[in-house]
Amino acid sequence: MPTRRVTISVADGLHARPVAELARIALSHTEAVTMEAASGAVVDMSSVLAVMDLAVGLGDEVVLATADHPEAGALLDALAAVLDPQG
After folding, report:
1. Looking at residue 57, which CATH number applies to its domain?
2. Of 3, 53, 68, 71, which one's alpha carbon is 20 to 30 angstroms from that of 31?
3. What's the structural domain count of the chain?
4. Is pTM, for the whole model, over 0.70?
5. Where in the sequence numbering do the catalytic residues fall?
6. Residues 11-42: tens digit of each pLDDT
């Protein structure tokens, strides 16, 4: 299972706009994508409310994961770019 560890650097942390963008990206692919917070909680990234409920913010580290498929790397890169635009 491909994963990507990302430190959140998006301005103001994960608020509605970046979370909606994450869900849009996740929903555009056929495979499920998850986000794991430092607390160990894992949520489906296609759910805006589930991601918001993680309450992760600026400087927090998360792990993104998806099934192994040809587009997995590009998918994780696109999600990481939303979470860490300077990365």
Report:
1. 3.30.1340.10
2. 53
3. 1
4. yes
5. 15
6. 877 888 999 999 999 999 999 999 999 999 99
